[in-house]
Amino acid sequence: MMDAISISKARLRFGQTIALDDVSLAIPQGTCFGIVGESGSGKTTLMRAILGLQKLDQGDVCILGMPLSHSRAALKKRARVLQPIFQDPAASLSPRSRIRTLMGEVATVLNEPLAVTYERLGVILNRLGLPKGILDKYPHEISGGQARRVAIARALLMKPSILIADEPTAGLDVSVQGDLLNLLQDIRQLENMTLVVISHNLAVVRLIAENAVVMRAGKAVESGDVASMFQSPRDAYTRELLSAWPRLRVE
Amino acid sequence: MAISVRNLSVDYNLSHVTAHALRDISLEIGKGEILGLVGESGSGKSTVAFALMGLLANNAKVTSGTATIGGRSYDLTRRDATAPLRGRGMAMIFQDPMLSLNPVFTVGTQLCEVLRRRLPGGDRKAHVAMAEEALAKVKLSDPKRRMGQYPHELSGGMRQRVVIAMALLSEPVLLIADEPTTALDVTVEAQIMREIVSLRDRIGCAVLLITHSLGLVTEYCDRISVLYAGERLEHGTVKQVQQQPGHPYTRMLFDCEVAIDRQRAVNVTENRFTVIPGELPDPFRRPSGCIFNGRCDVSFDACATTVPDEFAVGDAADHGARCLLLAGS
């Protein structure tokens, strides 16, 4: 089967800093893939490269077998396949528009009648557990958990086949976090979507992803299927990450 | 008890309504103990810290509460009640170290300022030497060079170490750490927690650790208090609470934690996360009865009408929870 995303030998420098150092990975279609690592390890840069927001010095990115192009037309076309959920959802919602207006923009991009978009939106809001009344609110009037779900709703409205979520649970309470992750898993199965989750939460990635890559200082230090990687980590850094995780002590 | 807080209540006055952020919170921390204060966002964890430090916003009002710190009593309803303790008896570590460090002064200047306040009339050279020693104690590399650096030149973990060094120099009776590691990576988190523990060991202060991570509490704390929507639902030693949670909310909170060693099931539908259904109650109108009633999985009729008192859990005198289910036992 064709890979949803494949990256080969990606290299990128920001001045003295090496942001990506010979990163290669393949994300099969219809699976959930985890990217873990500490801050500054290049997780978000990798996401930006996949989205075409960051040009690489060397290396290639292919989305569904097609090489990534940086032209405006290609970017527009790609938006129908690939949708991001950024780290700070409130920052990705314009503070000056009601949420209804933000959702309406999707109709313009997809070139479909507004009524059709809103009809699909109703179904999505229902599934995300968001009340209809939220459409009349401004982004600052809703809570952090709701803002994240609004960002997900807007991404889903684009009918993507690949969804990339950058730290989808950062700053959320455990219970809200669980709710959101269950939701993402349900949607992925229902729509047969490819889900890429960037997270520093190893416990979460272990549970939801089939495959994962561990990044450090721009390098992919270890990758493979999650079960064996967490059971017997080969790389010293992966072991360090795992042992540093605060665990509930049961005596 | 080195530190005790009694019946702390805080209101926030908004334009037309009043939000009750804290209702009758009491805490006790022994000398050299670390108390973990846990709860979801909006539960009032940080408000406790701010009320103690006297850092509440202008629209907040402490309606009741006394604190005993280092053998003296302070009436928290008075403005700036604990002002004499700031920098001498109490120190605080914030979530974002960049906000507690002044960007236009060097690390050295800021550390020496703490000493000037604690030891007025001291010798500057002695202060500089003590500051360098403190940086070495929190394992910051090359303390001499760090003294001349500005906060923006340091990484997040290094900045948090500087703030801990400041706390070390002020030799507080009470150290409040408000989500000290939330902005940091896991490996750095473990290092910073170890520094806080070693600071406690060195000066024997009481530590109030405010966090939403139960993992941190079980790993580093002696006692735990669980806050929900401005009320304390349970308190006890970490071991007691973990083995026998007295309140359903505490049990559900522990169930939500994702263990790092939890295996992934082959059948994808089995990889579910536990959640607490429902939402926090309206802060403007407290529902009658138990505050957790709407989300509780074992509630019964009386829960909707009776506000539960605190009952002892098991035989331990220092383990209590506010749940009607404990009333009969």
From TrEMBL, chain B:
Residue ranges of every copy of the ABC transporter domain listed in the record: 5-254
Keywords, comma-separated and alphabetical: ATP-binding, Cell membrane, Membrane, Nucleotide-binding, Transport
Principal location class: membrane
Short name of any one Pfam family annotated for the protein: oligo_HPY
Protein topology in the membrane: Peripheral membrane protein
Membrane-spanning intervals of the chain: none
Location(s) in or outside the cell: Cell inner membrane
Statement: the UniProt record of this protein carries the keyword Oxidoreductase: no
GO molecular function, one term: ATP binding
NCBIfam families noted in UniProt: oligo_HPY
Recorded family membership: Belongs to the ABC transporter superfamily.
Protein name: Oligopeptide/dipeptide ABC transporter ATP-binding protein
Taxonomic lineage of the native organism: Bacteria, Pseudomonadati, Pseudomonadota, Alphaproteobacteria, Hyphomicrobiales
